[in-house]
């Protein structure tokens, strides 16, 4: 076994051995270095491009592709029509409630003595509440039984609608609206995720079109129903009745929603790809940050939501601007405008039933073509818009506007099926929430603001031409572009599912032998720069694994991915066989994964005792346990015992490292990740720390250590993984690595073969 280090065995470019002559630079060596760096970067880019191309399965292996055609009836029967009907009914209640607010706005304004501005603000704020609620709802959708989330959201919705009807003043009415907005925000993330997991992939387009049609029908009938009830009730308080009445059926549907069956997550993707369902019996809680980081790496999703955010700039203001123009420019009455609205609505309704089947058919044959179709539907709108807005009369204006509306609505109705297909199935709720935030907050709100600014200076036509044309062209172009990514993203879905099945079988075969830590197929990027390529290894209980490699090979990045400080763009991290890839660092800490960071891991302005208390903050409710842990670490490091009131910044480097290690060990880690234990420390201190690590090893702790000193790493480790430029070059017993002269030299000299 190699002996522990002397300072002379330190590494590479950071600590280049060999004396001052090696550090002497000349113009030619600088030029050599520069060209070496350029070559290295070109090589990294080549590997990055290769890695992105690498995962591409044949079309028929992708989920839902090449399957037999499934009729809508059979598709609905497969998941039970109750789920679709219940969710559609709840969405219809949303429409009714929105209609109640807009139709009855003047009555509500008068009843509470509000200004026009106040009632407009209350109505418009609903959109913001919806976005606010989308994130928590998405989070719940990915963590909890969705039927319960839908049920509770429905109960809250009905209670808030009822409260709105009873509100005694404008403020209470506003609060009720706030509640309604948040409850409504469950529609996109929770309903979307539930539908995708309940019904087969082959009917997603048709179901979405059917849902959109139902929404349009209720949207058209709602003003009539609401206005009718208010008129029947009559009087100053007539406006309250639609809200009070709507609360009851909403409650009934919500109660029914509790009974909906909870579908297995990702079951249709699994059936399609694996032929069976791999159940995640104890799913780990997902962190929003990790989920978003991962979702933004799904290129199809990212491009599609950017596209629809851009489209949102024109789509949501389009209706208002059209109506303003019809009145101001063509002098059309409100009745005429109503007729135009209704005819357009009917035209959209007539077309939607054809879009869903077409999308499903294309998706089955070639998902890229299905997605490109959505872009090609949008692009003509960029041409139709200027034609429409220069029409000589209202009838021509309306006639040219109808195809645009149809095309946009048809494309919009298919966003759900696309996003649900490419998002990792554990993140469906948050994926939809992310889309909602971009589309409604960035697109709709941003579009409304800019349109308002342009109108105040010019007129609606200028607003549409300046905003609508570029938004539509950019949106359409982005969707067409995203179609080139979809097969790659679906291939990643396949790869992940296959890996899950393989792992499940392995665990069933040998349940006693599940590694404590598994890192599988990890790709990791900082921004656009990929630094890890398909990295994988395992660590057994009680084992010490050394991660070695050249400078910048990605060793610290792997530790980040394991402890949750970074989210890989591909691949899985498992702890005791359970997936923790999207679990927050805090939660991983609770499960026993702790990192001793490289460099100074203490708060220099605090005393030793305060540092320890800070580290033990989570144990504040169990002071006895905390004191036992303090005693344990102070027993390990007696040097710290007498310095408890000393500022950490005034300790020696070695003592600071001991304090940092104590702050980690307080938590009784199950897996200890160490990033550079010995860096910058005197040999005698290193010896002392090594003795401690040996003791922890004897106690059975599992350790992954990144060490610049080859001797130290090999002295401690049972096994080693050698990385070069983000790829694993060697995995095996540590002593074998020591015998690999080429790799060992690379650690010293910062390049393979030195
Ligand atoms: N926060 C960051 N942002 C951008 N790039 C980063 C970041 N952190 C690391 N990198 C880059 O990622 C690559 C891998 O870095 P990492 O620190 O994981 O390597 P390492 O093997 O631990 O190297 P070292 O031994 O020098 O610490 C390097 O090219 C590095 O420059």
UniProtKB/TrEMBL annotation:
It is found in: Cell membrane. Residues 487-514 form a coiled coil. CDD domains: ABC_TM1139_LivF_branched. PROSITE patterns: ABC_TRANSPORTER_1 (PS00211), ABC_TRANSPORTER_2 (PS50893), MFS (PS50850). Residues 517-750 form the ABC transporter domain. InterPro entries: AAA+_ATPase, ABC_transporter-like_ATP-bd, ABC_transporter-like_CS, BCAA_Transport_ATP-bd_LivF, MFS, MFS_dom, MFS_trans_sf, P-loop_NTPase. The keyword Transport applies. Residues 1-30 are annotated as: Disordered. SUPFAM superfamilies: MFS general substrate transporter, P-loop containing nucleoside triphosphate hydrolases. The keyword Coiled coil applies. Residues 21-30 have a biased composition (Low complexity). The chain crosses the membrane at residues 113-137, 149-176, 241-261, 304-326, 338-359, 371-389, 395-415, 436-456, 462-480. Residues 83-484 form the Major facilitator superfamily (MFS) profile domain. PANTHER family: HIGH-AFFINITY BRANCHED-CHAIN AMINO ACID TRANSPORT ATP-BINDING PROTEIN LIVF (PTHR43820:SF4). Belongs to the ABC transporter superfamily. This is ABC transporter.
């Amino acid at each position: 076994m190699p002996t522990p280090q002397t300072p002379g065995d330190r590494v590479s470019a950071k600590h280049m051995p060999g004396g001052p002559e090696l550090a002497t630079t000349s113009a030619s060596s600088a030029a050599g270095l520069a060209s070496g760096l350029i070559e290295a970067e070109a090589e990294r880019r080549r590997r990055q491009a290769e890695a992105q191309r690498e995962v591409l399965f044949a079309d028929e292996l992708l989920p839902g592709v090449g399957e037999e055609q499934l009729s809508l009836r059979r598709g609905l029967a497969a998941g039970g029509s109750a789920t679709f009907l219940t969710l559609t009914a709840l969405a219809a209640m949303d429409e009714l409630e929105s209609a109640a607010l807009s139709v009855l706005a003047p009555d509500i304004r008068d009843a509470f003595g509000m200004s026009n501005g106040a009632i407009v603000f209350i109505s418009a704020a609903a959109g913001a509440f919806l976005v606010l609620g989308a994130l928590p709802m998405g989070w719940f959708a990915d963590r909890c039984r969705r039927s319960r989330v839908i049920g509770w959201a429905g109960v809250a919705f009905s209670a808030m609608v009822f409260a709105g009807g009873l509100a005694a003043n404008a403020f209470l009415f506003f609060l009720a609206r706030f509640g309604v907005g948040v409850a409504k925000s469950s529609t996109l993330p929770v309903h979307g995720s539930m539908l995708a997991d309940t019904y087969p992939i082959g009917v997603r387009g048709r179901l979405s079109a059917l849902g959109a049609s139902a929404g349009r029908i209720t949207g058209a009938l709602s003003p009539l129903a609401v206005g009718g009830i208010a008129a029947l009730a009559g009087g100053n308080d007539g406006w309250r009745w639609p809200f009070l009445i709507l609360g009851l059926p909403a409650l009934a549907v919500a109660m029914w929603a509790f009974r909906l069956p909870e579908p297995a997550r990702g079951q249709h993707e699994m059936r399609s790809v694996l032929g069976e369902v791999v159940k995640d019996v104890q799913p780990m809680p997902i962190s929003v940050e990790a989920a978003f980081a991962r979702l933004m790496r799904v290129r199809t999703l990212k491009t599609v939501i950017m596209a629809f955010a851009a489209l949102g700039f024109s789509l949501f203001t389009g209706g208002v601007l059209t109506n303003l123009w019809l009145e101001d420019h063509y002098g059309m009455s409100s009745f005429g405008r109503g007729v135009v609205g209704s005819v357009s609505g009917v035209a959209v309704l007539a077309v939607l039933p054809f879009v869903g089947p077409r999308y499903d058919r294309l998706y089955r044959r070639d998902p890229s073509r299905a997605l490109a179709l959505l872009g090609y539907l949008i692009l003509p709108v960029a041409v139709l818009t200027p034609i429409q807005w220069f029409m000589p009369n209202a009838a021509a204006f309306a006639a040219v506007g109808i195809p645009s509306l149809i095309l946009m609505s048809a494309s919009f109705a298919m966003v759900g099926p696309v996003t649900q297909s490419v998002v990792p199935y554990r993140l469906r709720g948050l994926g939809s929430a992310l889309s909602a935030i971009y589309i409604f907050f960035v697109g709709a709100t941003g579009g409304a603001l800019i349109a308002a600014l342009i109108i105040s200076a010019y007129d609606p036509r200028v607003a549409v031409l300046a905003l609508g044309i570029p938004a539509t062209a950019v949106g359409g172009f982005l969707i067409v572009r995203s179609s080139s990514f979809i097969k790659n993203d679906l291939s990643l879905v396949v790869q992940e599912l296959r890996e899950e099945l393989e792992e499940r079988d392995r665990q069933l075969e040998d349940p006693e032998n599940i590694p404590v830590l598994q890192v599988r197929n990890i790709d990791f990027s900082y921004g656009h720069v990929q630094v890890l390529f398909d990295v994988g290894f395992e660590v057994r209980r009680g084992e010490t694994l050394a991660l070695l490699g050249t400078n910048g090979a990605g060793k610290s990045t792997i530790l980040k991915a394991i402890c949750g400080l970074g989210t890989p763009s591909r691949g899985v991290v498992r702890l005791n066989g359970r997936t923790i890839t999207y679990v927050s660092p805090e939660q991983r800490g609770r499960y026993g994964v702790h990192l001793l960071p490289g460099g100074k891991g203490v708060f220099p302005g605090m005393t030793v005792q305060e540092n320890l208390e800070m580290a033990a903050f989570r144990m504040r409710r169990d002071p006895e346990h905390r004191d036992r842990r303090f005693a344990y670490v102070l027993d390990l490091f007696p040097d710290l015992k007498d310095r408890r009131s000393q500022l950490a910044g005034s300790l020696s480097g070695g003592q600071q490292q001991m304090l940092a290690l104590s702050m980690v060990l307080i938590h009784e880690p199950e897996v200890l990740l160490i990033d550079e234990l010995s860096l910058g420390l005197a040999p005698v201190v290193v010896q002392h720390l090594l003795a401690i690590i040996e003791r922890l090893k004897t106690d059975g702790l599992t350790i992954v250590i990144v060490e610049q000193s080859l001797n130290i790493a090999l002295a401690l480790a049972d096994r080693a993984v050698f990385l070069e430029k983000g790829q694993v070059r060697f995995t095996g017993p540590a002593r074998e690595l020591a015998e690999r002269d080429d790799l060992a030299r690379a650690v010293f000299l910062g390049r393979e073969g030195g």
